[in-house]
Amino acid sequence: MKNINIKNSWKLPFVFLTMVVLIASLSSCSEEFVDEPTDTSGVTDNIIFANRNNAQTFVNGILANYKGQYGSVDAGGIYAMYFARAVKGNDIIQGVSWYRFDYGHENREPNFRRTNFSWSFNYENVNFANTLIAGVENSPTLSESDKKEFIAKGKFFRGLHMFELLLEFCPNYNNDRSVERIPLYTEPTTLETVGGNPPVPMSVIYNQVIQDLEDAIADLPTSRPGKSFINKAVAQAVLTRVLSVTQDDWGKVSSLARAAYGGNATAAVQSSNWGNGFSDMQDQEWLWALFQNGSDETNFFWGHAAPMMDHLTLSYSASYIDPDFVEKFSTTDVRNLFFDIYGVSATEPWRQYITTKYAFTFSSDIPLIRKSEMVLFDAEAQYHLGNTEQAQNLLFALQSARDPNAVKSLKTGQDLLDEILLERKKEFYGEFGPQWFDAKRYNLPIIRGTKHRVRLTVPADSNLFFLKIPEDEIDLNDNYAGFNNE
């Protein structure tokens, strides 16, 4: 395992942070050009938040981070964190290439790059969000309506990235909500910031995340320049994910999911991406994605799913599919895109199947949230609410859109929930790690079959479901003195 030493970049001086964001964002994150700021002679907060265009440029810079290229291919933007989760399950078999340590569940030590990247990337964006909120609140020139919108955007980013930190560095929330592992930041950190905030109970951070996202939903617009930007529906979708973890209010999970996917499940799940390279964010079923055009807006060969999973184009060709998972798909399912192109011998059964779900190009858009996920969350919520038939109908809306020969499930109880979770694996393999996400929130094990390159079982509620706190944080933050970093 190659170690890297990523310092706490989220504690860098404010001026440097804003300069990085402004420079990075001038040509990023847009399918339609956003006007450049009217004054770029300096990077003080008075200039950055002087008008709507400048504030939007700051937001664009945050979004530009999501396609970042940092220290290595498997430690880039948000796509890298999601794909690392994807290979931790039992559906994907990762070859001896990038993400192999995530696949082996051996990438959680405090000085490893997965741990350092996930911490620095998310806290950096939390600090950007806090800088945005404070700068907008203190702006003497922004209109009140603009202030509401940009504060909502800041709260969305803070809520999203604190949620990602909870997933990455904390155990299952509902086993013990009082666990203290990570700090919460609601104010910008600057050069003068001394030390760091103390770790606080998960319940405190989840409450802040939920409040931030609720505030964002209230004030975010429904319109946006393109799907690489955020709007009300994106915030509703992220809060749906959060509440699927806390499991406090399944009625609200359903209502948020329906608002995000539009309320008509049959219409929401229709997609032309399957079998066509899974790369077009203009597909109506994609809710939020990272735009790429192959030139000034692309991360080239960096580690999102397409260059890992495409074996027919010059790329890493590193990901294979577990034969046991392949058997879960009917022959008429449009997602059944598995092929044996290598004719491997019995000595390498893990290389038997590849998938053509992704066709890699430099202009392949990267999905972050799709409407089908929200439909399945709605089905899951209906199951928990005791509305079995509604859960079955919502599940069938997706299944029948993917397979013309699908038969509506008549399962009930735990069997129905298991089928919903299996459908999540089938629909989102390679995207954001649904099995890891679901196993963590439901206290389930991850059990791999005998054909995996790395055979293992991750027990339910294992420490392998979260990363250790980075060594740099423990060294620099006195609040971690005596901390049990297991």
TrEMBL record:
Please state where this protein is localized: Cell outer membrane
Which PROSITE patterns does the protein's record reference?
PROKAR_LIPOPROTEIN
List, for all copies, the residue spans of the domain called SusD-like N-terminal.
87-242
This protein's GO CC annotations: cell outer membrane
Where is the secretion signal located? Answer: 1-30
Q: Which InterPro entries match?
A: SusD-like_N, SusD_RagB_dom, TPR-like_helical_dom_sf
Please provide the record's keywords in A-Z order. Cell outer membrane, Membrane, Signal
Q: Which Gene3D superfamilies match?
A: 1.25.40.390
Family in the record: Belongs to the SusD family.
Protein name (Swiss-Prot/TrEMBL): Carbohydrate-binding protein SusD
